[in-house]
From TrEMBL:
This is CHK kinase-like domain-containing protein. It comes from the Eukaryota. Residues 150-347 form the CHK kinase-like domain.
Length: 434
């Protein structure tokens, strides 16, 4: 399926180019392999024909370097002439994943192969189980050499963009995203029921947060540095004494990440989906029409795994939602947006034994330790103001002094502290710190 999707060829007569190709790199450092032939292959896969002439490529950056530490992302407008149809343009996102140097250890986690599998195989099958629902941008081209590279449709021309990273997203963003997440989860449940072999697939055995990833210094060091800062803050909060003692135990005995891995693991009774497992704001595209948020799509499927639907829900809340939402709206969002979308999609697919709304809420409670990981590892950096961010986070991971400084700054935001005040007290009632 993958080969036919990426390498299908049309038997139509080739349209012979007669004009000079124009490439505008606009002073950006663009890899040499992103050339005319590369984009001919991309456009061919997009339009399903060789009967066109590529006339220009216009490059810009797809995101700032500090917003994506594992990839280099470019935005490209490709203009071409199609025989009998005149000039046309397509907008693409090109994601290059260097897997050497600072990022070499991520190659061992097969993040590129995982994402290729998801975009080119699993997601199309998930969407085929749903009724006219789009969960992610389309992938048009993939290559492994000379650099792991994927090309997607650019959603920006149709109004998609990322939400507010620093302050968190408001209730309207949450409504739209949780509706889409419910549909995505339902589609994956339907696919797992239809194709049980996926329940045993090695490619979906673990995500980006696992015993393998936590064995890497770049993933294991920061959670404990941030945890120590959280303990410093929480020690000054009246009524948090018991919680602080347990957090100190996690830190002193280095048991925190072991407990996270145990919490991620599938347990009896879990509602098992193909989870995204990294639902932070930069991995979500929101569609805007005027002042309204109308849709959401997931991107960056490098960490997908079989797991409880509660993983994605609790992670989304802890790292993305603004404080007002956390204080008063979470139950409503699950009851009125996530669950109806989840249930409706399962009903449309004739799913057997549809989970109840209480089942879903129980999943979220059970995965509180994963929520704590999101709050400790991800939220500090997400809520950092842009002027406080280090230029090269990957480089900082190798420098203890820079790491200490980064942890001090990242864990000092009011949003970080107020979010943890809310969740730590709630999780205490679940018995998380017993």
């Amino acid at each position: 399926m993958l080969n036919s999707y990426l390498e299908g060829r049309c038997s139509c007569q080739v349209y012979i180019p007669i004009f000079t190709m124009i490439i505008q790199k606009n002073n950006y450092d663009i890899p040499d392999f992103l050339n005319e032939q590369f984009f001919k292959n991309v456009v061919e896969n997009k339009v399903g024909s060789k009967n066109f002439e590529l006339t220009s490529l216009d490059f810009s950056m797809g995101c700032k370097p500090e917003d994506n530490h594992l990839s280099k992302v470019y935005r490209v407008k490709a203009t071409y002439n199609e025989k009998k149809a005149g000039s046309k343009a397509e907008n693409f996102i090109v994601k290059c994943v260097p897997l050497e140097g600072d990022r070499e250890e991520f190659a061992e986690m097969d993040i590129f192969e995982k994402e290729k599998l998801m975009y080119c195989d699993i997601i199309p099958r998930i969407e085929s189980c749903l009724v006219n629902i789009k969960t992610a941008p389309k992938c048009y081209y993939v290559m492994n050499e000379p650099m792991a590279t994927m090309v997607f449709e650019d959603m920006k021309p149709t109004g998609y963009d990322i939400g507010d990273r620093v302050n968190g997203v408001d209730i309207n963003h949450c409504k739209v995203f949780l509706t889409k997440l419910g549909q995505y989860h339902a589609g994956s449940l339907l696919l797992l029921e239809k194709e049980p072999s996926l329940r045993e697939s090695e490619n979906l055995k673990h995500g980006i947060f696992s015993s393998l990833s936590f064995s890497k210094p770049s993933m294991a060091t920061m959670p404990y540095l941030n945890l120590s800062r959280l303990i410093d803050h929480a020690s000054k909060w009246p009524g948090y004494e018991k919680i602080v003692n347990k957090l100190k135990d996690f830190l002193t005995n280095k048991t925190f990440l072991d407990k996270v891995v145990e919490n991620i693991r599938i347990s009896p009774g879990d509602i098992v989906a193909i989870c995204h497992e990294d639902c932070w704001v930069n991995n979500i595209l929101f569609q805007y029409k005027g002042n309204s948020v109308t849709d959401a799509l997931l991107i960056d499927f490098q960490g997908c795994t079989r797991g409880s639907v509660g993983l994605d829900i609790i992670f989304f809340f802890t790292v993305n939602a603004e404080l007002n939402v956390l204080r008063q709206d979470r139950d409503q969002l699950i009851e009125e947006y996530y669950y109806p979308a989840f249930r409706t999609s399962l009903e449309q697919g004739s799913y057997k034994n549809i989970p109840t709304i209480q089942d879903v809420k129980n999943e979220v409670k059970k995965k509180a330790m994963f929520g704590l990981l999101g709050a400790v590892l991800m939220l500090p950096f997400i809520s950092m103001k842009k002027e406080d961010k280090l230029e090269n986070t990957m480089e900082a991971l190798k420098d203890k002094n820079k790491l200490e400084k980064m942890a001090d700054i990242a864990c000092s935001s009011e949003r970080f502290k107020e979010t943890l005040k809310i969740f730590l007290k709630e999780w205490e009632t679940y018995g998380l710190f017993d």
